[in-house]
Design brief:
It is a single chain. With 359 residues, the protein is an alpha/beta fold. The chain has 8 helices and 19 strands. The chain folds into 2 domains: 2-113, NAD(P)-binding Rossmann-like Domain (Rossmann fold); 117-289, 2-Layer Sandwich (Dihydrodipicolinate Reductase, domain 2), CATH 3.30.360. Helices cover 28% and strands 31% of the residues. The strands form 3 sheets. Strands 18-17-16-15-14-13-7-12-11-8-19 form an 11-stranded mixed β-sheet. The chain has a 6-stranded parallel β-sheet with strand order 3-2-1-4-5-6, sandwiched between helices. The protein has a two-stranded antiparallel sheet with strand order 9-10. The radius of gyration is 21 Å and the shape is globular. The two termini are 27 Å apart. This is Gfo/Idh/MocA family oxidoreductase.
Length: 359
């Protein structure tokens, strides 16, 4: 069994705790919160990290605090020799990313809680792309999630590393009804101004990304979520692939999700598999838990972190990767605000990874 402690108890920390309760081998043993006397979790609460580490003795830490507070918590944990899974992004801005890397980058103890590539749909799509069915990926277009999460998808599907990117962006504002937010149904019937950011990222050698995000798009179901991966021999659009399986033959092949619980399927609501032409691209390891896609990804991230801490698996998402994602997201913001092309620099964390590779 591998144990962890939480710092903070916001939306993401609560999600980690909820998912961990359904796992057999990853257990939360404590939480560092502002008011330890006010019981918010069925685990011991502590007013500071030192007391938590001394008494609960967690194997690793998960931060669930605002981005401005994350670097200090991470540095404190590393100083005590404790591995950390830091919430996204790991620091608020470029200076913060650089300072954090200077402080803890050499420790090898810090991972980032980036879960999007572990979501069943994305994991299956990534497996399909890596199978070579569309050839070499050349462009990724993401219109679903914000900033660093989108950059993780672009980099992951495109297979780019830490080389500089030329970024251009524009913003527009238009009315949009906002029926859902993090709190649930808003019950509003009046459109409000929503900002759309569209950016292009040129990584060189024919590789590019397109970022298209409207404020609250992650939860606003009046906007589609779209993913397009273009390759030398075809392309993937959401859950369908166009490719050339034989000479003079163009095929459109769907990714098919096996979802139990519909009609007379009495096994309960669950994702089971995602297949491509009969080949299983993703199999849900948590069938029976009734997890949604984000919970499946969170569980996979927790178990990957635990395996890494035990020395039984690779690092799930190193600090260098999370820092690079946010560096690109910040460049998109800067390009949109200034109207200028922004070229990202090679940072200290990037020197660990040769051009064109990822960890």
């Amino acid at each position: 069994m591998t144990t962890f402690a939480l710092v903070g108890f916001g939306f993401r920390a609560e999600a980690f705790f909820r998912v961990a309760r359904a796992l057999d081998d990853v257990v939360c043993v404590g939480a560092v919160v502002r008011e330890p006397g006010r019981r918010v979790l069925p685990v011991p609460a502590f007013g500071d990290l030192t007391a938590c580490v001394r008494e609960a003795r967690p194997d690793f830490l998960i931060t669930g605090v605002p981005r401005a507070a994350t670097p200090a918590i991470v540095a404190e944990a590393v100083a005590q020799g404790l591995p950390v899974l830091a919430e996204t992004p790991p620091a608020p801005d470029r200076d913060g990313l650089r300072a954090l890397w200077t402080a803890v980058g050499g420790s090898g103890l810090v991972q980032v809680a980036e879960q999007y590539l572990l979501m069943p749909s994305h994991a299956a799509r990534l497996a399909a792309v890596r199978s070579g069915i569309i050839g070499t990926p050349t462009q990724v277009q993401v219109s679903s999630t914000q900033q660093y999460h989108a950059m993780s998808l672009v980099r992951g599907f495109l297979g780019v590393g830490h080389e500089p990117a030329a970024v251009r962006a524009v913003r527009t504002v238009a009315p949009l009804l906002n029926p859902l937010d993090r709190g649930g149904w808003t019950d509003t019937d009046q459109p409000e101004p929503a900002t759309t950011t569209i950016a292009t990222l040129d990584f060189g050698r024919g590789r590019s990304g397109l970022y298209d995000f409207t404020s609250n798009q992650t939860r606003n179901l009046l906007r589609f979520r779209r993913l397009l991966v273009r390759g030398t021999h075809g392309e993937l659009q959401d859950d369908e692939i166009v490719h050339m399986p034989a000479p003079r033959t163009i095929a459109r092949t769907p990714l098919s999700r096996r979802q139990s619980g519909h009609d007379l399927d009495l096994n309960g609501l669950d994702t089971e598999t995602i297949t491509l032409d009969g080949e299983v691209l993703h199999r849900n390891p948590y069938v029976g838990s009734r997890f949604n896609d984000d919970e499946i990804a969170t569980a996979a991230l927790l178990e990957a972190m635990a395996a890494w801490v035990r020395g039984e698996g690779p690092p799930p998402y190193p600090l260098a990767e999370g820092a690079q994602d946010h560096l690109l997201a910040l460049a998109v913001d800067q390009a949109a605000e200034t109207g200028r092309e922004i070229i990202t620099s090679v940072e200290a964390w990037s020197l660990e990874f040769p051009s064109g590779t990822t960890s």
